[in-house]
Model the fold of this input.
Amino acid sequence: MIEISNVSKSFRRKSALINVSLKIAKGTITGLLGPNGAGKTTLIRMMNIMLDPDEGYLKYDGQLLKKAHLKNIGYLPEERGLYPDMTVNEQLNFFAKLRGLSREEAALNSRYWIDKLEMKEWSHKTIQSLSKGMAQKVQFAVAVVHDPEFLILDEPLTGFDPINVDLIKNLLFEFKEAGKTVLLSTHNMHRVQDMCSHVALLNEGRVVSDTSMHALLEGYKSDRFVVRYRGTGIAFANALWTDFELAKQIDIQEGLVEAHLLKRGDKSVDDLIKNLQGHVQIEAVYREQPQMDQVFMALIEKNIIE
Amino acid sequence: MRSVFLISWREIKQRILNRSFLLMLLLGPLLILSLFYFLVQAADEGKQQVNVLIADPGDLLEGIISSRENPTVHYSFISDYVTLTEFKSGKVYQDYDVLMEVNEKVLNNKKVFVFYRDYLSNTIQNSLRFTLERRIEEVIIEEFSDLTVESYRQMKQPLNIDFRNLENPTNSKMGDAGWVGYFFGTLIILFTLFYGMSILRGIAREKSNRVVEVLVSVVSPGQLMLGKIIGVGISALVQLLFWLLVISLGLWALQGVFFSDFFLSESFLGMHFSDGAHEALQTEFTRVRNNEMIHLIYDRVNLGLILPFFFLFFLSSYVFYGAFFSLIGAAMGSERDGQVFILPLVLLLIFTLIAGCFMVMNPDSEFTAICQYIPFTSSMAVMVHLAMGYAVGTGYLIWISLLILLFSTVIMLWLASKVFKRSLLAYGHQINLKSVFRWMTRG
Done:
């Protein structure tokens, strides 16, 4: 869908992007991660043709990215911006028409998104009279009102309550299922792990990692296992033998214990289950997932050392 | 182009539906008309209703002049001489404002003295002058010729000696006409300043609330700038056209209702004329409309010529200055930033207003000539010059001024769009000349 090839950009003497190459595949939700000043916004602005690269190029569906492609791109900037004196309905119509929709299409799409995002009651109110959360919804609707193929979202869930977070998350999954592409730039690692199938990590203007979420997490696979069982602690400890080391145990309900284990050697979940069978009643066994923020930190540290 | 139209339309809607815009739409021209009305009244200061005592020892005029001709002037007669001391202090004369001395020799020496206590308004002076002149003329015709009054007046064409500048032989009293040009020039400058500031504030606000980030992800900065300049410009044009329409209607209404007594008519003289005599008199009446301001506005200025050029220079000047204002707006780091840059621009506009006065008073000076070719001042200089009249064969100078202004406007738009593109997404900095220059010159 989007191909970024050897792109560099400097502002005066400061390099914002250095030889960045990325591919964002069609029908994926890709997370764009990086600490402040990593070059995420510069890269996003290039994808919106708001900035030109000093070197390299960007492609959209195999063609060099040009203005004509903008009608297929939706953009939700981190710094939210709407006309405070325009109503929700006027705002959506205005941006839909700017994105190339006819008057009728703009009206139709605006109505659709007003309904979909449950904004009907206040669609005739001006932005300045809305709460921050409501304005956030409008901002999201502005980004998608023209039914784009590629959606760039910079911190899309900031300012939403949990109900609306779910609403937006589900919408993004709908987008993905419809074969559309989403680029999600966020600091919230938990969200990335939740939603993204692909992750690109930027640090100091360079790409540190560009891989699938699965591959990334595999690279940082945890040696910890979690077992939930019913039975005695002695029986459980005996069943572990020398293959696993008990790190901690928590009584989470009456009779139900959660044990955190550290594996020794080359042992797998299968080995653990075999060991425990017949000794305790197993309720659940899983390998502890590496936390995205830990992966992020590890990648940054690795990049700094390198 | 559609994007430019959409942005312009949004700007137009935002302004035209604004309550203060609608208020100013009416208040502005009413204010100007009131000002005009007071200027006219001020030009006609003096006593408006008078009692005239005609000292007529030869009994030439009694029964010929009557107060019916002009209800504001009441005539009384005395068949004797009245000395000035008597008139000044005598109790019987205290009710009279004016003493008109018509001695027996008046038919030969044509000399009449009019003494007044308080200054008389132009209207009254003209009324007295005309009434007396016409009636004595009638007496002369009756006494010394076999002609009828009508045929005499038909023959009597006044010799009109008009003093005019050799370099500018089209207009007689250029100075006064120049002020009409100055009025049009001022309209251009005021609208440019007001709406230029509106562009600047609009851009600064959009930068500050970050909507500009969404906008430039859809349209190019150049389109955004052009859309704003066009949209705000059309709003300005709507207001200006409305103002001119209301002012024109107002002047027409004032002419018919308030200033009717300034326009001489047959009834004013209490006479009826044949067509030929009427035409001859009409020429004379037009010359002597008895209020300079009225005469200036309704007769002397060639609005048919000024108005098309006014609109051409208004639009060019607005876009020229508009590009400056949008450049500053885009380069500003925050809504409060940029005062340092606005000030010289505002001073330049104020300078043009002051320079306009100098141009009216010194139309042939080198300064006025130079100002016509400087894009910052050309609109004012051309308006003043146009109102005063260009000498035969020098009309092409207007087109040279316009071409220079248009060329400068194109350059300014190009520079502004460069700054606009590079600075629009820069926030939080403090605007400085070095940055602006860098944004202008960087490839």
In short: Chain B touches chain A at residues 2-3, 6-7, 10, 14, 206, 209-220, 425 (CB under 8 Å). Residues 16 and 83 of chain B are 68 Å apart (CA to CA).
